[in-house]
Amino acid sequence: MMEFARPWLLPLALAMAAASWFVLRRGHGGALLRHPRVALLPADQPTFRVLLARWQPLVPAMALILIVVAAAGPRVAHRSEDIEGEGIDIVLALDISGSMRSLDFHPRDRLASAKDVIRGFIDGRPHDRIGLVVFAARAFTQCPLTLDHPVLKGFLDEIEVGLIDDGTAIGLGLATAVARLRHSVSPSRTVILLTDGENNVPTLGPATAAELARSLDVRVYTVAIGREGLVPYPVDDPIFGRRTRQVEAKLDLELLRSIAASTGGQMFQATDPEALEAIFSTIDELETARYETTVSTWYRDLMGWFAVPAFLLILLEALLAATWLRRLPAAG
Fold first, then answer.
1. CA 175 to chain centre
2. How far apart are CA 93 and CA 282, in angstroms?
3. Angstrom distance (rounded) from CA 227 to CA 3
4. Which of 5, 172, 265, 274 is deepest in the core (most CB within 10 A)?
5. CA 286 to chain centre
6. Which class for 207: exposed (0-12), middle (13-18), buried (19 or more C-beta within 10 A)?
């Protein structure tokens, strides 16, 4: 944004603009040419030269206004300052298996509730690089570590159950998240694993993935979403449409507790949206790392953008006064 080094000069420019308006309102004070019999002259519309003569006082006035603005020191500031803050690298590993459609997080399902809380978590950590991994029967990186949080939230919004074959590969999801942090140089590297089931895909064992995290000094927080037992689940009936029926939900809390303990993290369980939000608030307080950065300030001078037009207007005024708008000497 443009600013001025000497803004106290700007009222002078306003005063000049007001004076120019007053002069133009009064009109031209004297005749350009005296004639003994004005009635013989054609009473036609003013010529271009006459109109130009009427507006001539505006040219030097504009030049003076531009000179004053240039003297005020217009410039564009590029600021820099010393900032202290907190920033770490975090990868969210989110379960998108079919059971995440369970409706025990009334009025929304588990996945929608988790996405809402994650979105707020992202908004609360503007200085952190955050990535996103999703898993079901397989796992893939939905978004790598980034400080561009609007883009990250865009990828989060695209997540839905059914993007991957159904299943719960907790070990594979954790290992994929840890791999995203392998080259991180952050003083704190964290994975937040959210799941609502048991590991039922033998591709990679959760214990192996936890050992990988521990070897890379990655702390893992595990969050169990939902409760065990009967939970409401939506079913599409070809005759009656979508209905809700009770299905059995299972959680391997011991496995999640073991993963967190072996990596220096903690295990949490959320049975409603409020509890899930409280868990992320707790993790938000636990995971902090101080950083310092220096932002300097420099200015780009814009004086020339006003001084050069002022100079050209002065030349234009001199040219007009010597040619088209040259005044004849008054008769003695």
1. 30
2. 18
3. 58
4. 172
5. 25
6. middle
The residues pairing with 268 across neighbouring beta strands, listed in sequence order, are 223
Could you read off the pLDDT of 91-122 as tens digits, one per residue? Answer: 999 999 999 999 988 888 999 999 999 999 99
75 is written with which tokens?
Answer: 């410039």
* Tokens describing residue 80: 């820099």
Say how far apart CA 58 and CA 70 lie, in whole Å.
18
CB atoms inside a 10 Å sphere around CB 11: 11
- Please state the domain extents for the chain: 2-29+45-79+297-322, 95-293
Residue 147 belongs to what H/E stretch? none
Interval 7-27: pLDDT, tens: 888 888 788 777 777 766 665
Phi, psi of 66 (to 5 degrees): -65, -35
**Pick from 41-50, 63-72, 85-94, 207-216: least confident:** 41-50
Cβ neighbourhood burial of 121 (10 Å; 0-12, 13-18, 19+): buried
SS3 315: helix
Contact indicator for 168, 197 with CB cutoff of 8 Å: yes
